[in-house]
Structures are given as C-alpha cells and as structure tokens.
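Reopening this ticket.

The earlier resolution said the output was attached, but the attachment link was broken on my side. Pasting everything inline this time so it's all in one place.
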Amino acid sequence: MGRDELLKLISEYQARVPIADTTIGLRALNDPHFVLRLRDGRRCWPETAAKVQAFLEEYEAEANRLNVLCTEDGTWIAHDRRSGLAHSGRTAKLAEVSLRKLLDQSSERAPA
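Inline output:
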C-alpha cells in the first residue's frame, strides 16, 4: 500500500470513527506527527502502512464494542459490550477514556 492509498484509508476511516491524526500516528507507530508528515508528502514504507492499517482495524473493532450514552441529568456513560464494564463522566470523551483505563487495568490483572 502506497502513501496515497494509506491517506485514502485514513480519511475514510476518520469519516466513520472519530480519531485524530495524532492519535493514529502515536498509537500505531509511536509518532504523533506521522499522518501530518504523510499528508505533506512523506514517503511510506509498505511495512509502515501495514502497521497503520492493522491499528485502524483493531481500533475500529474496539470502538464498535463500546456504547456511549447520555442520561437525563447529563451524565455520560460508556459501556463495554464484551466485559460488561461501564464508567461514567461529565463528557462522552471522559467516560470513554475512563472506561478504557478500567479495561486496561482489568486486562493487566487477568491471568495469562
């Protein structure tokens, strides 16, 4: 996959799932500037494109398993369908981030 194909994949993905360019670069490659540099003409090795593509597929699967809703009093609740865990927050983002931290903690405690 070349640079143009990867940029198209990223743009199509961002139309479905709200995620920043910096988040993609940081989580996929530990380089928060990767997507910006790619948009500026940076070359992309096929192995790098494959890492980004694998991250996007994994992230979308994870995003699809979370429900986020707002209660009548304005509290946001994020719920993980797989584990049944939930967390609340003042905003949807805070609830989701808190739930992801909780999921990370519970996976660290799980026996191998």
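Reporter confirms the inline version is readable. Residues 7 and 39 are 7 Å apart (CA to CA). The first helix runs from residue 3 to 16.
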